[in-house]
C-alpha cells in the first residue's frame, strides 16, 4: 500500500501570513493537531503543529528581567523568531519532512519514527496533495487477518510472480506465517521482505519457508565474451 491509497485529502492548510489565532481556529474546526503552511500556488513552506503554537504561547509570559534577557540571546536566531512570531510562517517548522505519493507504508513509518514527526505532507510536483498522520498509520494495522492474507497472495502473484499454491500463508493477530518452498534463497528473502511491507502486517514468521537452491554462492563462468577476431 502506498501513501496515495490512504492519505487524507483534500488537505486543510494555512497560508504563511495566517495569524496564530486563525491557525488555532482551523485546527479546532477540523480536529487536527497540525497544518501544512503553503503559499498561494500550493507549494509547501513548512508545517505548524500544536507544539509550535504551545511553545510560542508558553514563551509569551517569559523573558522579563536579566535572566530572561540572557536566555533570549543564548538561543539561535531561528528559535527566537519562532518564540516571538505572530504568523504561521514565523512559528512553523521548516523545512518539513515530506514523502511522495508512491512511498510505501514502511517508508512512511520509518520517516515518522526517524524524524519524530506526527504527520507527513504528501507532495507531488511541488504541490501538497495529501497528508498522512500517525493515526492513519495505526488505522492500517486494524485490517482483518483474512484480508491481509488475501493481499499477500495477490502481491506474490502480481508483483513477484511467485505461485502461492506451493506456499501456506496464514495470518493471526496481524502476524503473517508463510511456509513452503520457493526456487532460490534470493527469492525466499524477497518474499519475506515483500510480505513484511503488506499493509496491516505486524510481523512475519518465515521460519518454515524453504528454498531449493542457494544462489548466493553461484559463480558466473569466467572467460572472454568477445567474439574471436577474423584473420
Structural commentary:
With 231 residues, the protein is of the alpha+beta class. It contains ten helices and seven strands. A hairpin with a 2-residue loop joins strand 3 and strand 4. The protein starts with a helix and ends in an 18-residue tail after the last strand. Mean pLDDT is 83; it is low at 64-78.
Structural shape: elongated
CATH superfamily of the largest domain: CBS-domain
Q: State the name of the first-level CATH class of the largest domain.
A: Alpha Beta
Give the CA-CA distance, first to last residue. 59 Å
Count of separate DSSP helical elements: 10
The number of distinct β-strands equals 7
Mean pLDDT: 83
Q: What does the radius of gyration come to?
A: 26 Å
Strand content: 15-25%
Write a concise keyword list for the protein shown above.
231 residues, alpha+beta, CBS-domain, Histidine-containing Protein, Chain: A, 2 domains, 3-stranded mixed sheet, 10 helices, 7 strands
Entry summary:
With 231 residues, the chain is of the alpha+beta class.
Topology:
Blueprint: H1 3-6, H2 20-30, E1 34-38, E2 44-49, H3 50-59, H4 65-73, H5 77-84, H6 88-91, H7 105-115, E3 119-124, E4 127-133, H8 134-139, H9 145-158, E5 167-172, E6 175-184, H10 185-196, E7 203-213
Parallel strand pairs: 6-7
Antiparallel strand pairs: 1-2, 3-4, 5-6
Amino acid at each position: 500500500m502506498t501513501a496515495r491509497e490512504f492519505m487524507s485529502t483534500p488537505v486543510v492548510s494555512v497560508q504563511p501570513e495566517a495569524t496564530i489565532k486563525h491557525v488555532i481556529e482551523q485546527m479546532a474546526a477540523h480536529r487536527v493537531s497540525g497544518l501544512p503552511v503553503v503559499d498561494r500556488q500550493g507549494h509547501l513552506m513548512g508545517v505548524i503543529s500544536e507544539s509550535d503554537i504551545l511553545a510560542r504561547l508558553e514563551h509569551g509570559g517569559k523573558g522579563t528581567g536579566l535572566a530572561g534577557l540572557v536566555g533570549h540571546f543564548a538561543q539561535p536566531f531561528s528559535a527566537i523568531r519562532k518564540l516571538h512570531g505572530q504568523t504561521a510562517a514565523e512559528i512553523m517548522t521548516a523545512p518539513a519532512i515530506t514523502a511522495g505519493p508512491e512511498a510505501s507504508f514502511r517508508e512512511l513509518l520509518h520517516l515518522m519514527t526517524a524524524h519524530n514527526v506526527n504527520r507527513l505532507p504528501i507532495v507531488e510536483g511541488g504541490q501538497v496533495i495529501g497528508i498522512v498522520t500517525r493515526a492513519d498509520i495505526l488505522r492500517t494495522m486494524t485490517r482483518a487477518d483474512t484480508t491481509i492474507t488475501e493481499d499477500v497472495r495477490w502481491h506474490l502473484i502480481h508483483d513477484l510472480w511467485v505461485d502461492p499454491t506451493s506456499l501456506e500463508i496464514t495470518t493471526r493477530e496481524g502476524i503473517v506465517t508463510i511456509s513452503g518452498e520457493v526456487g532460490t534463497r534470493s527469492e525466499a528473502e524477497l518474499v519475506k521482505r515483500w510480505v513484511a511491507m503488506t499493509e496491516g502486517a505486524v510481523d512475519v514468521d518465515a521460519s518454515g519457508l524453504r528454498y531449493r537452491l542457494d544462489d548466493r554462492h553461484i559463480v558466473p563462468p569466467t572467460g572472454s565474451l568477445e567474439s574471436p577476431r577474423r584473420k
